[in-house]
Amino acid sequence: MTSPKNAPSPVAAPAVTATTTRPARRPAQVKPATEGWKQATGPEGRPLLQFKSPRVSQPPTHLADLTLPEREAKFKELGLPAFRAKQLSVHYFQHFTTDPERMSDLPKERRAEMVDTMFPKLLTEVKRLTTDNGDTIKFLWRLFDGSLVESVLMRYPGRVTLCVSSQCGCGMNCPFCATGQAGLTRNMSTAEILDQIVQANRVIAEGGLGNLRRDGGHDAERVTNIVFMGMGEPLANYKRVMNAVHRMVAEAPEGLGMSARGITVSTVGLVPAINKLAQEGVAVTFALSLHAPDDELRDDLIPVNDKWKVDDALDAAYNYYKVTGRRVSIEYALIKDMNDHPWRAELLAKKLNQRGRGWVHVNPIPLNPTPGSIWTSSEPHVMQEFIDTLIEHGIPTTLRDTRGKEIDGACGQLAAAE
Ligand code: SAH
Fold first, then answer.
1. pTM of the prediction?
2. Mutation test of ligand 1: which of 35, 172, 289 has the most ligand atoms closer than 8 Å to its C-beta?
3. 204 CA distance to ligand 1 middle (Å)
């Protein structure tokens, strides 16, 4: 496969300049291309973008799809007192259970009925992979229609992070990402998104991440941080994702009572949705998957760049900071000889500093190659140079860890293999 555009490299000019000023230790510019699979293209021969999901079916309504007043209304319809909805919510969001046997505060004769109506089975565990040291667990779930999604649970000192999926597949078609290769199947429901957290909390409560601090394990009893960095583009499933976020931060028994700043919404850069997110009144942490500071390269790396350019996406990220006061993250997967050139670090720093100071930090991450990929992660010294350049220009920069490499790290790999 050649690159989607099949055109002479538009990045040749700056890259050539770069090679003449640096030792000839590596090629000037590797162009994005796929190998072993074909990137779907749209009418104009550009990579296909899917904003509408081909499949519209959703799982049956679950308690977590509803606000507390909606749950109470539903119970009234069933001829049940409203306070039963609250009790059921406590079981789900605080005890992480849907097992009628454990709901002794509910009348025995209607317990099964209540559970059946409010808790249709959403996620069935297909596979669970745990790292040797037990600090990372990757789950593969099957949904009601057979779709497969992943979530990853990670224990750190002082926090437990869950990486959640928001769509079955993804329509953004980024050539380096395992999820994008099969395209979008459908949006996940609000409850399917939330159930990933409740299931993870149950696993933690059952000792899945080891004991609490006493034995040197973790010191959080449940998931404290959420990153929307699993399968899917969260802002392409805006309404359901936002409902899920509202339920994450809602106090018990309406929701999980989590802190908004511990929730990170990551996007390829859907500008109108970013601006909408800024107005939501929930100050989640915002992350932009930039991966290139120049449109020439980003057009190929992040196909949605056809619609919203680097500067549009950065303006929207800056606006998010202005409106919410929350510092935003720029994600940057470092890919060998593709986007890791010092001139790109300089250009990135320049574009960020042009907009202001102290509003952003950069999170480079070594590329996690998908199976059969011709793409590789940057050399350690190249990554370091990239980071140092940003820091020299006053941009706080921290290399993100690649958790769970040994368990099919790159998200979407597990589902793809199945
Ligand atoms: N669609 C959203 C969230 C899902 S991906 C987004 O793009 O932001 C979460 C992050 O993982 C994104 O920054 C994405 O670019 C990155 N990513 C995808 N595949 C990767 C890979 N093979 N190696 C490293 N990072 C990858």
1. 0.91
2. 289
3. 26
- pLDDT tens for the chain, residues 1 to 418: 333 333 333 333 343 344 444 444 556 788 887 777 788 998 888 999 999 988 889 999 999 999 999 999 999 998 999 999 999 999 999 999 999 999 999 999 999 999 999 999 999 999 999 988 888 999 999 999 999 999 999 988 888 999 999 999 999 999 998 888 889 999 999 999 999 999 999 999 998 888 665 555 556 689 999 999 999 999 999 999 999 999 999 999 999 999 999 999 999 999 999 999 999 999 999 999 999 999 999 999 999 999 999 999 999 999 999 999 999 999 999 999 999 999 999 999 999 999 999 999 999 999 988 776 778 999 999 999 999 999 999 999 999 877 766 676 555 565 666 6
The yes-or-no answer on residue 411 being catalytic is: yes
What sign for the dihedral angle of Cα 259, 261, 266, 269?
Answer: positive
Tell me, yes or no, if 44 is annotated catalytic: no
Peptide bond into 380 cis (omega under 30): no
Which residue is listed with tokens 């004991």?
211
Report the C-alpha gap between 270 and 288 in whole angstroms. 9
Q: Cis peptide before 293, with omega less than 30 degrees from 0? A: no
Tell me which CATH code domain 124-417 carries. Answer: 3.20.20.70
Output the ligand 1 site: residues, CB below 6 A: 172, 176-177, 228-229, 233, 266-268, 289, 331, 333, 365, 367-368, 370, 410
* Residue identifier of the C-alpha nearest atom 7 of ligand 1: 268
- Measured CA to CA, the distance from residue 220 to residue 212 in angstroms comes to 7
Q: Which of 158, 140, 161 is nearest to 149 (CA)?
A: 140
Q: Which entry of 101, 109, 150, 296 is annotated as an active-site residue?
A: 150
CATH of domain 63-118: 1.10.150.530
Residue with the nearest Cα to atom 11 of ligand 1?
229
* Ligand 1 center to 177 CA (angstroms): 6
Q: Where are the domains of the chain?
A: 63-118, 124-417
